[in-house]
C-alpha cells in the first residue's frame, strides 16, 4: 500500500461513492478510514438491547432513493434492498390530530382534505408540478454550482414563467410558502415539518424549497430504509468497490496531505508511513479539517482560511434510541404505520423552535423526528417489539446535563401523544454531540447536516464563496465530504462531484485544466 492512482481519505458514503466511480474508470483506488470500520454516519449496531438494531445516525433515505448518483451505481446488483413502512411520514399535532404523507397519492390527498377540502387538489397540483420537473431539478441539484447545463434543461422544461415562480420559491420561508398553497394546517405542516427536518427554521428565507423537496420525495419515492440497517448501504458500497479492485483500510488515520510544487502527491498516516497518489487525493472530511489540519497553511490562500473561520455549522443534535416491548401506542391511529413521525410542534411551535435555536436558547418544546424502524424493516428487532429513535436539536456547545434534560423532554413529548410509551421501554441509549462526532468526524459538534442551517452555504457557497466545485487551491486535491456542494444527506453528490473533477483533471490535463482551476482560484481568493 505504498502507492495508488487515487487515495480517498474517509470511508463514509461520499468517500466510497467517489472511490467506486474512480474504480469504474480503471483507477487503482485506496480508501483510508481512521475508525475501526467503514461507514461514518451510516452504521447500525445493537446499542440498546440484544436483537435491537439501531442506526447510529442516518436512518431514512429519500434523497438516496432518488439520487441519480446512487442509481447509477446499480447497488441492487450488489445486495441493496430498499424497504418501506406502510406510510412514509406522519405529522402528529400536540392535540393528536395527524396528517399523513404516503406514497399513495390518494391517501395523502384524503389526509390533507380532512383539514381543508380544497387542499386535496392543491396537493395533487403540487405533486404534478414535481413530476414535470423532477429529472431536471435533481440533475441541477447534484451538479456543481452553478448548474449551467442542468439549469438550461430545467428552464426549457418549465418555460420562463414557471421557472420564475420556481426561483421565487427558492427565496421563500417554508411557513409562508405553505400558507400560500394550502388552507389547512395538515398540508402546511407536512411541508413546514419537512423544512424543519432539513434543519432549517420554517421562517428562514430559502427554507421552502427544502420542505417542498422532501415532501415531494416522500410522495414520490417514500422515506425508504436499507434492509438490515443503514450500515448495509455501506457494506454494499464496499463490496462493489472491492469487486472493481479497490480496497478499504480501516484504523488508518491520515495526519497530512503531502504537497509538492502546489500538487497533492500523497498522504502521511498516523504511523508515519507515506502513501503516494499518482493522480489524485480525495478527502471525505469536513472542509475546516482538510484546510485547517491536513494541508499545511503555506499551500492555501489566506483568504480561504479567513472564510473558513466564519463557516456556520448546524445546531447540535440530541438523539435517543429505545428498545420497546411493543409498538408505540399512538393516540392518533394514523401514526402507527408511518416510518418517520414528526411531532411536538404545530405551526406556531415550529416557528418558536427555530427562533429559540437562532437565539442560542434551548427550546422548551422540542420538535422531534422519530423513526419507527421495525415498522419499516421487520429485521430490526424481535417479533412483536419495536426499535425506535427520536432526535431534536439544541444550541452548540451545551454540556452533558443539557443533553440529558433535552433527552427527557424528547421522551415526555412521545409520552404526550402516546400514553403508556414509557411502560414499553426495555432499554434506552442517549447520544449527544460528542457521541455523534465520535462516529463520524464530519458531524462536527453534533451537526448532522454539515451547515444546512446557513441557507447561503446550502444553496450557493459550499464550503465558502468560491467555485461551487470540489476542486481546491491545491492541484490534484479534491473535497469529497458533505461540506462540499450539494451538502449533507445521503445521496453521494459531494463524492461524485469530487470523482468527476479528478477524472476531468486527469483527462483534460493537456487542455490546461489545472491552469484554469488555478486561475479561477486566484480570482476568488486573490
UniProtKB/TrEMBL annotation:
Q: What are this entry's molecular-function GO terms?
A: oxidoreductase activity
Checking Pfam families in the record gives:
Amino_oxidase (PF01593)
Q: What superkingdom does the record give?
A: Bacteria
Which positions fall inside the Amine oxidase domain? 15-492
List the PANTHER family hit by this protein, alphabetically.
Answer: DEHYDROGENASE-RELATED (PTHR10668:SF105), PHYTOENE DEHYDROGENASE (PTHR10668)
Question: Assembly state and interactors?
Answer: Interacts with COX5B; this interaction may contribute to localize PYROXD2 to the inner face of the inner mitochondrial membrane.
What's this chain's function? Answer: Probable oxidoreductase that may play a role as regulator of mitochondrial function.
Protein name, entry field: Pyridine nucleotide-disulfide oxidoreductase domain-containing protein 2
| Species annotation | Amycolatopsis jiangsuensis
